[in-house]
């Protein structure tokens, strides 16, 4: 039994492969946009990092925190990229569509509203949060990389998911400016 000429098959396959590669290069998607926020407490101590990755449904936040008080803490995206203690400089929640506050509120949520964080007794937490209301695409109304920036804020207490404008979450205990 004679084997086919492998060189000829490779040459023909190479032409087909080169054409396919050229087509793939034209339709290839860009690498996802990324950003990060280094989280600090009011004393300026490092309390963790949040890596943000653009995904098809919004932005995935990979949260790694340490040294926080145990218990429930509201976790929001704020509309100004400043973190000067006591973090009022971060402004209100990111809310480009003028909605009501709260994941359970009629007419809500703000784009910056996210689920509470439940910090264990160790004070360390690793969690991933998907926010479908925001993007990392500069120029979008809901972009976290807008002029003036945005920030992530952790509050002293839990968000009640319905009280406007901030969910009765208490003082701001940690903040990180979102940067590309």
What is the topological layout?
Elements: H1 6-27, E1 34-41, E2 46-55, E3 58-65, E4 71-73, E5 75-78, E6 117-119, E7 125-131, E8 151-155, E9 172-179
Antiparallel strand pairs: 1-2, 1-9, 2-3, 3-7, 4-6, 5-8, 8-9
Structure description:
It contains 1 helix and 9 strands; from the N terminus they run αβββββββββ. With 180 residues, it is mostly beta strands. It has a single domain (34-179), classed as Immunoglobulin-like. It has a 7-stranded antiparallel β-sheet, with no helix packed on it. Strands 4-6 form a two-stranded antiparallel sheet. The model is unreliable at 1-27 (pLDDT under 50).
Structural class: mainly beta
Radius of gyration, in angstroms, nearest whole number: 22 Å
Query: Which band does the percent of strand residues land in?
Result: 25-35%
**What's the β-strand tally?**
9
* Secondary-structure element string: HEEEEEEEEE
Question: How many helices in DSSP terms?
Answer: 1
CATH architecture: Sandwich
Distance between the termini: 61 Å
Q: Report helical residue fraction.
A: 10-25%
Major sheet summary line: 7 strands, antiparallel
CATH topology (level 3) name: Immunoglobulin-like
Number of domains: 1
Q: At the first level of CATH, what is the class?
A: Mainly Beta
Strand ordering within the main sheet: 5-8-9-1-2-3-7
Full CATH superfamily name: Superoxide dismutase, copper/zinc binding domain
Mean pLDDT: 83
Uncertain regions: pLDDT < 50 for 5+ in a row? Answer: 1-27
């Amino acid at each position: 039994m004679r084997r086919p000429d492998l060189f000829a098959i490779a040459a023909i396959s190479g032409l087909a492969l080169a054409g396919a590669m050229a087509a793939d290069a034209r339709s290839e998607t860009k690498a996802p946009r990324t950003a990060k926020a280094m989280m600090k407490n009011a004393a300026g101590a490092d309390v963790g990092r949040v890596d943000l990755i653009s995904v098809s449904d919004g932005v995935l936040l990979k949260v790694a925190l340490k040294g926080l008080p145990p218990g429930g803490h509201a976790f929001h995206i704020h509309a100004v990229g400043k973190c000067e203690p006591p973090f009022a400089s971060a402004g209100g929640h990111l809310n480009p569509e003028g909605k009501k506050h709260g994941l359970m509120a009629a007419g809500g949520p703000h784009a910056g509203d996210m689920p509470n964080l439940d910090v264990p007794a160790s004070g360390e937490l690793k969690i991933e949060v998907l926010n479908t209301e925001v993007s990392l695409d500069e120029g979008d109304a809901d972009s976290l990389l807008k002029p003036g920036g945005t920030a992530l804020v952790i509050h002293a207490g839990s968000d009640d998911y319905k009280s406007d404008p901030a969910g009765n979450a208490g003082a701001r205990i940690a903040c990180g400016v979102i940067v590309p």
